[in-house]
Specification:
A hairpin with a 5-residue loop joins strand 4 and strand 5. The protein is globular, with a radius of gyration of 24 Å. The chain has 3 domains: 70 residues, no CATH class; 126 residues, FAD/NAD(P)-binding domain (3-Layer(bba) Sandwich), CATH 3.50.50.60; 124 residues, Alpha-glycerophosphate oxidase, cap domain (Helicase, Ruva Protein, domain 3, Orthogonal Bundle). The protein has 14 helices and 15 strands. It is 37% helix and 21% strand. The strands form 3 sheets. Strands 1, 2, 3, 8, 9, 10, 11, 12 and 13 form a 9-stranded mixed beta sheet that branches. Strands 4-5-6 form a 3-stranded antiparallel beta sheet. Helix 9 packs across helix 10 and helix 11 crosses helix 13.
């Protein structure tokens, strides 16, 4: 329910370029065997414009190939839920502050802090795995301050535009910018997701969105391919992320570094670190990491079973899920589609919640698919303890629409205050802090919302 195949279309200025790309992709198809999502195609101009009607017509033909698309925000949640179902214990809003070692210098425990209430947490373990992405070096040096940094951080941003700008189920791949990057325009949750940039940056814990300059950079290339003179005033939202890239030397630019992963075991502290990597290979990353961990603990490895594990929300997923929900309660079609795409077979639980009262079946704000039943579900089942947890990290509204986010914040805050018995000050602090963060992000993008 969180993944789907998507075709990417690359317009080319002449048919010699089209032939070049087509031959390369056909070789890729042959090497992929039956693991490909669909055969690559060489489209003529008419077929291309049929697929992307708002594409400018100054091209000769186009190449189409298939890739996969995931809802990474909900995918991460499904991974955590699946791990917990299999026996893991998950802590959020928790910061590792120090390690404890035995006389040989090996890690035996860590000290952490609950960042919501200040509670100190002491955790003992036989093995410690550092899977902290761009913050990997911070944990490595905490365990052994004589280690050399291994990770360089690249910043990438995306912007969200109305889907009407490119009304297509296919994605557009702009093959090369002046600085050698790729730009994508991808249909995503009833919007158009456009990006990305890549710039080396300093490590930061602060969340960030696109700057005015980055928005202009993305729009510059989108406007070269799409009709309509798209402007910053049409941007609905934006977000940024940090890519953890494993460095071979300090002279290589981040855009030249590969996304491969490596597993490092510190000989002194015995800390295992998984460095680099990407979403598309996360199960291989998990296998490689756990093989090293098992070898460290037992001197042998057992067969990895990650490829057999279906994530939470997918175990009982079926094509009939929509009808199952409508048999429980007659929710609007867009709400049902939203629940299925976000929660998979768990959508039936939310539908049952929506039957408990008229309010629970209602939208929190007009024009959006989030209901009070969904809010109750994430508070009860997904460790959502702050307004930002709900609006940004469970609903995903902040990724898609900043105006809706600003409308949701006080309404969600009121409901959470009642559910968790917050004081008036706790409620106002929670709402105010998130509003300040959003206002700063909007200001940094030089947008008017």
């Amino acid at each position: 329910h969180l993944t789907r195949p998507i075709s990417l279309i690359t317009p080319v200025k002449n048919n010699f370029a089209g032939l070049y790309y087509f031959i390369g992709l056909k070789v890729y198809d042959m090497l992929s065997g039956n693991q490909t999502l669909g055969p690559s195609k060489w489209l003529n101009k008419t077929n291309t414009l049929h697929k992307i009607p708002t594409l400018k017509s100054d091209f000769a033909s186009a190449i189409m190939y298939y890739d996969g698309q995931i809802d990474d925000q909900r995918y991460g949640m499904a991974l955590i839920q699946t791990a917990c179902k299999l026996g893991a214990i998950a802590l959020n809003h928790t910061r590792v502050e120090s390690f404890e070692k035995n006389e040989a210098g090996e890690l035996i425990a860590l000290n952490a802090r609950n960042m919501l209430n200040g509670e100190n947490i002491h955790i003992k373990a036989k093995s410690f795995i550092n899977a902290t992405g761009p913050f990997s070096d911070h944990i490595r040096l905490m365990a052994n301050n004589s280690l050399q940094p291994r990770v360089r951080v690249s910043k990438g941003v995306h912007i969200i535009l109305p889907k009407e700008i490119m009304p297509s189920k296919d994605a557009l791949l702009i093959p090369e910018t002046a600085d050698g990057r790729l730009v994508f325009a991808i249909p995503f949750q009833n919007y158009l997701l456009v990006g990305t940039t890549e710039d080396e940056t300093a490590l930061t814990e602060e969340e960030f969105g696109p700057t005015q300059k980055e928005i202009e950079y993305i729009l510059k290339y989108v406007n070269q391919y799409l009709q309509g003179n798209i402007t910053a005033s049409q941007v609905k939202a934006g977000f940024g992320g940090l890519r953890p890239l494993v460095q071979a030397n300090n002279n290589t630019s981040t855009k030249e570094l590969v996304r491969d992963h490596i597993i490092e075991t510190d000989n002194s502290s015995k800390l295992i670190s998984i460095l680099g990597g990407k979403w598309t290979t996360y199960r291989l990353m998990a296998k490689d990491t756990m093989d090293v961990c098992e070898m460290q603990l037992k001197g042998t490895t057992t067969e990895c079973t990650t490829h057999l594990k279906i994530l939470e929300g997918g175990q009982n997923f079926s094509a009939n899920l929509k009808n199952e929900i409508l048999a429980i309660i007659n929710l609007p079609a867009d709400v049902v589609e939203h629940l299925i795409s976000k929660y998979g077979d768990k959508a039936t639980i939310i539908a049952l919640m929506a039957t408990k009262s008229e309010k629970l079946s209602q939208r929190i704000i007009l024009g959006a698919t989030y209901t009070y039943a969904e809010l109750l579900y994430v508070m009860e089942n997904e460790m959502a303890y702050t307004v930002k947890d709900v609006v940004a990290r469970r609903f995903g509204a902040q990724l898609l629409n900043w105006q809706q986010t600003l409308e949701l914040i006080p309404l969600v805050g009121n409901e959470m205050a009642a559910y968790f018995s917050w004081t008036e000050k706790e409620k106002q602090d929670n709402i105010h802090q998130y509003l300040l963060e959003m206002q700063a992000m909007i200001k940094n993008a030089s947008l008017t919302i």
